[in-house]
Amino acid sequence: MEKRRHSRIPFFGKAKISTATRPVEVMISNISLGGLLFHSKKDFELGKEMVIQIKGTHRGKEFEEKVTGRIVAVHRGSAGNSFGLQFGAYLDESRQPFLLASVTGSRKKGITSFLRDN
Length: 118
Known about the structure:
By secondary structure, this protein is mainly beta. The chain has a single domain (9-104), classed as Thrombin, subunit H. It is 7% helix and 49% strand. A 6-stranded antiparallel beta barrel has the order 1-2-3-6-5-4. It is globular, with a radius of gyration of 13 Å.
């Protein structure tokens, strides 16, 4: 049974996480008003707080927006790692207008995931 407060939609995009040494590129596979799922060969720990810079296209316009959050779910596998990131605040029109429009204006069917909220 799905226990999430906000439906996730498929969202395929590249993003960068700033780290102490150098930025790490990750791939996002879904997003909601309150979080996202990203994949990386690099390992991040549960509870880690981070800023992710997301690049994408919405209605033919390219955008680059930032979100902050902490890792609340981790799945490590031989093909790579998946991380559930819970945002510190919901997507907001003044800070992430394109991401918010992508989520709220999507006609895509909500999806379920093997990662669960805490």
